[in-house]
């Protein structure tokens, strides 16, 4: 469809564009077909979010939202249709311009600026100038909210100087953005001083409520791979409630959280049956059993399923890749907890690196060890989010290779490992590359070489704790998600 004639014969309605999903397919983002009225369905879901929130948090109509929203530059498919991420498509739509853009502190021109730095800068300065009006703050995914805080940590001096003089730095050069911010930014010595005092002492605990004191909750997804960011968000937000309000994907919108003020570990989403046709593959011990599909109305509480969608855009019985657990019912509609992305091993932002991709990348990098007479004996990996943005850490145990006459692992120095890091990164997906290089949403990958015998000790430990020697395998260490190597 992307390379052929522009309209599809497979559907009654022509394909209007392709959405670039972060779910990777052989290293490239998938192109998800969509149709025009899919935006109406997305809008339907979004328009329900505030009525639900209003049931739990009073006074939200008295202020505005501090939302950091971004678009990416788009391309065209050979058939002439736009290819862009779903959020870019939504923010550029009339739906967003009409319904949502005037309910947040960020000017539309700043949101629509594809230069991430300029966009973030303009959105931050606008948010600071309107700090008393903000009653809710967020981003779609938690990782982006943390990047906004990091941006403030890095640029508060310049931001304060701009507010002092009522003029934006030349680093924001986009004329439309400058014009939009000019309507908000006034010389304000008191505010500039407030920002300097608040940011200069190095104490960032509760910074969100200190700068935006009327914020009642954070609106950002902290389920799934975003759960790793929950503790650090609590730190920055001074324990504000965090609402994970929606469950959405490029394939189709899926559902919303009808109890948004619950603890993040308790979040469940109610799937709306009018957004697509939803079916479920029961998963057995983590693997989707090739049995019959179960309809939405027939899923059973307590069981886990992989979600399968038939969409208005033309996907037929398509496996999204998400595993969900039924936690109960809202009237007759089942509620689902997000359990995991099937196959995803490492994820910092929208990237989802699976085992095969990492294996291929490690193999490519380990070729660089050959001239040094070394090889990778065993490895594991994890995401480190101690610093924001997070990064991948790959643990290697090296061994000397006989072919090289045992030159040994000693000659594998920092330079060699640096080149191995780059080689791994180059072998990872296109989505990883964009987030790492273009957006700066992922820090450089790190290889840590462990002592010889470490992995054997790990096996012995697992076996001493009752694991089967024959079945033992090292799994990634996802400390952010509270999981550790298991057998
Ligand atoms: P994309 O394909 O880039 O649109 O990303 C969609 C994917 O993001 C979904 O299939 C999920 O894996 C993940 N996702 C979206 N919303 C949530 C949520 N509320 N909780 C956990 N994961 C989510």
UniProtKB/TrEMBL annotation:
Domain of life of the source: Eukaryota
Keyword Plastid: no
Family as reported in the entry's similarity comment: Belongs to the IAA-amido conjugating enzyme family.
Keyword Ligase: yes
Entry GO terms, CC: cytoplasm
This protein's name: Uncharacterized protein
Domain GH3 middle: 269-341
Domain GH3 C-terminal intervals: 357-475
GO molecular function: acid-amino acid ligase activity
Any Pfam family: GH3_C
């Amino acid at each position: 469809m992307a390379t052929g004639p522009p309209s599809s014969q497979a559907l009654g309605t022509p394909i209007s564009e392709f959405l670039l999903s972060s779910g990777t397919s052989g290293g490239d983002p998938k192109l998800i077909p969509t149709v025009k009225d899919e935006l109406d369905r997305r809008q339907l879901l979004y328009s329900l979010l505030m009525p639900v929130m209003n049931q739990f948090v009073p006074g939200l109509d008295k202020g505005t939202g501090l939302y950091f929203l971004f678009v990416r530059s788009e391309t065209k498919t050979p058939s002439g249709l736009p290819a862009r991420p779903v959020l870019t498509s939504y923010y550029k739509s009339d739906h967003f311009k009409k319904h949502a853009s005037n309910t947040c502190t960020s000017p539309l021109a700043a949101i629509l600026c594809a230069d991430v730095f300029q966009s973030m800068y303009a959105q931050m300065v606008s948010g600071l100038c309107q700090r008393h009006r903000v009653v809710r703050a967020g981003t779609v995914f938690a990782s982006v909210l943390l990047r906004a805080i990091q941006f403030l940590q890095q640029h508060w001096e310049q931001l304060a100087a701009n507010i002092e003089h009522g003029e934006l730095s030349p680093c924001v050069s986009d004329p439309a953005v400058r014009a939009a911010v000019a309507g908000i930014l006034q010389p304000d010595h008191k505010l500039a001083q407030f920002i300097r005092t608040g940011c200069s002492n190095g104490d960032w605990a509760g910074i969100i409520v200190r700068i935006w004191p009327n914020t009642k909750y954070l609106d950002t997804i902290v389920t799934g791979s975003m759960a790793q960011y929950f503790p650090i968000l609590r730190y920055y937000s001074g324990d504000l409630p965090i609402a994970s309000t929606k469950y959405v994907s490029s394939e189709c919108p899926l559902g919303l959280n009808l109890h948004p003020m619950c603890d993040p570990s308790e979040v469940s989403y109610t799937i709306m049956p009018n957004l697509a046709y939803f079916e479920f593959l029961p998963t057995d011990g983590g693997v989707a059993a090739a049995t019959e599909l179960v309809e939405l109305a027939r899923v059973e509480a307590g069981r886990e399923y992989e979600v399968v969608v038939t969409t208005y855009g033309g996907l037929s019985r398509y496996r999204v890749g998400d595993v969900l657990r039924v936690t109960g019912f809202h009237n007759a509609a089942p509620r689902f907890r997000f359990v995991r992305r099937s196959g995803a091993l490492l994820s910092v932002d929208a990237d989802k690196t699976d085992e095969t991709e990492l294996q291929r990348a490690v193999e490519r990098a380990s070729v660089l060890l050959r001239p040094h007479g070394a090889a990778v004996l065993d490895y594991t990996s994890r995401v480190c989010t101690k610093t924001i943005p997070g990064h991948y850490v790959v643990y290697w145990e090296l061994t000397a290779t006989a072919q090289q006459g045992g030159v040994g692992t000693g000659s594998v120095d920092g330079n060699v490992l640096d080149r191995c890091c780059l080689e791994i990164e180059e072998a990872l997906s296109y989505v990883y590359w964009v987030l790492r290089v273009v957006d700066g949403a992922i820090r450089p990958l790190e290889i840590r070489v462990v002592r010889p015998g470490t992995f054997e000790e790990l096996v012995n430990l697992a076996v001493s704790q009752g694991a089967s020697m024959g079945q033992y395998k090292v799994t990634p260490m996802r400390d952010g998600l509270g999981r550790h190597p298991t057998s």
